[in-house]
Write a structure and sequence with these properties.
Elements: H1 2-6, H2 11-33, H3 37-54, H4 57-65, H5 78-140, H6 142-145, H7 149-178, H8 184-221, H9 229-251, H10 263-272, H11 276-279, H12 285-301, H13 318-324, H14 330-345, H15 349-375, H16 381-402, E1 407-411, E2 427-429, H17 439-444, E3 447-454, E4 456-460, E5 471-475, E6 477-483
Parallel strand pairs: 2-6
Antiparallel strand pairs: 1-4, 3-6, 4-5
Helix pairs in contact: 5-7, 7-8, 9-12, 9-16, 12-15, 15-16
């Protein structure tokens, strides 16, 4: 029975056991023979993940350079890693294209507006040129017809519009150039700076143009060579002060001697002060020296036409003719101005200038000689040059008086025949008549004229030559007075 149990088993049962054994033995054989991929790749994948944790900026740098980040083969499938990158790379160019298209449309609009402004600027420039031509024509007609205020106003308005368009064009070009490069607050600040600089520059240019226009208008509208009363009086006062300073600086330490005076000097002194030997005191010496200079100065100021006209030749007839027609009133003033201007613009003016220099040199020598006979002082060359400069200023004053529409009279008083009383209206005493007298007694005494030290100036009529009976004392004569 035992042998049957051990060796004699049914065939079906053996087959089942063999199949069970083979199935059990096949599992360990496959596990040892072929190794799964997960057991090999998993350690490498974990190292890559460690590296990425250590360097988190790798993906960012690759995105910045335009490349795609390499994804792990085991974590994410290849197909799923590429599709998001395509989507992101497709979104960015589309946004940039929209931005560029928007900027291009704005730039095209700005260029179109700039072209319109340029067209308006060209039109304003053409208007400005037309205005300038019109102003030039009006200036040519201005001497006889006066100033056209309407055209001047139109010129100012056109120039103002032109400046405004230029300012807008400059600011628009600046904004278009920097619009895509700077943020909005900075662009606005730069725009304001440019506008301020442009406004300051245009303001200075307008100011210069306005001053030039005012000067041209003033020169065209004012009466030629006319001078105000204050300016004329100041000019004569300056000459009087220069004469006083010249005599003080050269003769303040001198003492006049009236003995052994030459005959020609005696005659000259007598025309200034008939009793000069007795009336001239030590305190009045400087005033008398000024009178000697002023007496020669009157030969310049009393010239009826132009100082320096020759006494011989064809021009010698002008002075006698002028003296004969002095009573013609306004017509005489017009004629004398036209004659002086014609002589100054003619070729004979060179000869007149030569004659003028010769006469001034002779007058300067006569003054120095008269003062030498009184003081025995020979002045230096510098003092002679200063005296000649004073005489030249007197020549300028004589020309100014001749060219005025009003008539002027010089008051250089001479008491040749009788004693002349002191006149407060036309005379100004520059000395103390009687230093020994009291103030109260001096008020009761009558002042008399000794001699005149510098002439006074009286004006008849107005700047237009009208109202010839109107008399106005512009400058009182400086005199030396006494008690009589």
């Amino acid at each position: 029975m035992t042998e049957r149990k051990s060796g004699d088993s049914p065939p079906q049962l053996n087959i089942r056991r063999a199949a069970r054994l083979t199935s059990k033995s096949s599992k360990p054989l496959t596990s040892t023979a072929t190794t799964p991929k997960a057991t090999v790749v998993a350690p490498n994948a974990r190292k890559e993940e460690v590296r990425r944790r250590k360097n988190p900026f790798n993906d960012m740098l690759r995105h910045r350079d335009g490349g795609a980040v390499e994804a792990s083969t085991d974590a994410v499938p290849p197909n799923s890693s590429k599709e998001p990158m395509r989507e992101t790379s497709g979104v960015q160019p589309e946004g940039l294209a929209q931005r560029v298209a928007h900027l291009e449309s704005e730039l095209a609009a700005a260029k179109e507006e700039q072209g319109a402004l340029r067209k308006e600027l060209e039109e304003e420039r053409s208007y400005r040129k037309a205005d300038l031509d019109m102003i030039e024509e009006s200036r040519q007609r201005l001497a006889g017809k006066g100033l056209d205020e309407g055209s001047l106003h139109q010129n100012h308005e056109s120039h103002y519009n032109l400046v405004g368009l230029e300012e807008q064009l400059i600011s628009r070009e600046h904004v278009d150039h920097n619009d895509s490069e700077k943020p909005k607050p900075q662009r606005e600040a730069d725009d304001l700076r440019v506008r301020l600089h442009t406004a300051e520059k245009e303001s200075n240019e307008r100011l210069q143009q306005l001053l030039s226009l005012k000067s041209s208008i003033s020169s065209l509208t004012r009466m030629e060579s006319q001078i105000t009363d204050n300016e004329l009086a100041d000019s004569f006062t300056q000459v009087a002060n220069r004469i006083r300073e010249w005599t003080v600086s050269n003769y303040r330490r001198s003492k006049p001697r009236f003995d052994n005076i030459p005959k020609e000097s005696h005659v000259a002194f007598g025309t200034i002060c008939p009793r000069y030997r007795t009336d001239i005191k030590t305190t009045d010496k400087l005033t008398f020296y000024q009178a000697i200079v002023s007496d020669s100065l009157m030969k310049v100021l009393d010239s009826p036409v132009m100082f320096g006209l020759p006494s011989t030749g064809p021009l010698a007839a002008i002075v006698p003719l002028a003296k004969q027609v002095q009573d013609a009133g306004g017509a005489y003033r017009v004629w004398i101005r036209a004659t002086v201007q014609a002589l100054e613009r003619s070729t004979v003016y060179v000869d007149i200038e030569k004659e003028k220099e010769a006469v001034l040199h002779r007058l300067c020598g006569e003054i120095c000689h008269l003062l030498f006979t009184l003081t025995s002082i020979t002045i230096t060359t510098t003092a002679q040059s200063a005296l000649k400069s004073i005489l030249k200023d007197a020549v300028g004053l004589q020309r100014t008086l001749i060219l005025q529409r009003a008539r002027y009279e010089l008051l250089f008083f001479r008491n040749q025949d009788e004693v002349m009383e002191f006149d407060d209206y036309t005379m100004e005493a520059i000395n103390d008549p009687d230093p020994s007298a009291d103030e109260d007694s001096d008020m009761d005494m009558d002042h008399t004229l000794k001699f005149c030290a510098f002439p006074g100036l009286v004006k008849y009529g107005d700047e237009q030559g009208q109202y010839p009976d109107m008399r106005n004392v512009l400058l009182k004569a400086r005199v030396c007075s006494g008690v009589g």
